[in-house]
Design goal:
Oligomer: single chain
Strand content: under 5%
Strand order of the largest sheet: 1-2
Pfam family, one: FCD
Order of helices and strands: HHHEEHHHHHHHH
CATH topology of the largest domain: Four Helix Bundle (Hemerythrin (Met), subunit A)
CATH class of the largest domain: Mainly Alpha
InterPro entries: GntR_C (IPR011711), TF_FadR/GntR_C (IPR008920), Tscrpt_reg_HTH_GntR (IPR000524), WH-like_DNA-bd_sf (IPR036388), WH_DNA-bd_sf (IPR036390)
Number of helices: 11
Largest sheet: 2 strands, antiparallel
Structural class: mainly alpha
Protein name: DNA-binding transcriptional regulator, GntR family
CATH superfamily of the largest domain: GntR ligand-binding domain-like
Keywords: DNA-binding, Transcription, Transcription regulation
GO molecular function: DNA binding; DNA-binding transcription factor activity
Shape: globular
């Protein structure tokens, strides 16, 4: 790890621990133990935890260890509703504002997913998938929209990952992303909205199933 970006790199590693369940919802994020495991000092670890707290993945507690966030279904459902609106708005604006470089980057990500889906670690592929959606928000060239989209995407990181794993299917994923990309390349706002809706429309239902499965496992 390089010193310049150490807190963010630590945050990335902890984020992956949360997604894989190594740090489960409600679990303590022990500063000393995690710092020792990653071979870093407690100061950048503390900064990394603050990054995750800002994203909503960790909850800070006075005089006690932070814990991994355990949002309710209602909290997740409300955030999903906002994220879906942001995804569609990003795509609509990107149809008008995306540059050739923006579209080239989206094509590169889509091609990479198509070529390497079956040979890439599911968590790595999930992060590549999320980079596609982040790139669309950036292609809107609306800083407020991109920032808000990023905040909601980070807040829903674990929920999105669990649903992505549940519905992991190369042909479906590649077809959906290709349809979104082609709509953006055609500058077709209606087609872009429809493609986003097709891709993410089942997300509320999928997340409900994940929550119900977790409740069953915990019973």
């Amino acid at each position: 790890m390089t010193e310049a970006s150490l807190p963010e790199q630590i945050a990335s590693e902890l984020r992956r621990h949360i997604l894989r369940g190594k740090l489960a919802p409600g679990a303590q994020v022990k500063e000393r133990d995690n710092a020792a495991e990653l071979g870093v000092s407690r100061t950048p670890m503390r900064e990394a935890i603050r990054i995750l707290a800002k994203e909503g993945l960790v909850v800070l507690r006075p005089a006690r260890s932070p814990i991994v966030a355990k949002p309710s279904y209602k909290e997740i459902s409300d955030a999903i509703e906002v994220l879906l609106a942001l995804e569609k708005l990003s795509a609509e604006i990107a149809c008008a504002e995306a540059t050739a470089d923006d579209l080239t980057e989206l094509r590169r990500i889509t091609d990479h997913m198509s070529e390497h889906f079956d040979t890439t670690d599911p968590l790595d592929m999930f992060e590549i998938d999320m980079s596609f959606h982040t790139a669309i928000a950036r292609a809107s060239h609306n800083d407020a929209l991109a920032e808000t989209h990023g905040a909601y995407l980070a807040r829903l990181w674990r929920a999105r990952y669990l649903t992505a794993i549940k519905r992991r299917n190369r042909d479906r994923v590649v077809a959906h992303h290709t349809a979104i990309l082609e709509a953006l390349e055609a500058r077709n706002r209606d087609a872009a909205r429809a493609a986003i809706d097709r891709h993410l429309g089942t997300l509320p239902h999928d997340i409900r199933e994940v929550f119900e499965a977790e409740r069953t496992d915990a019973a």
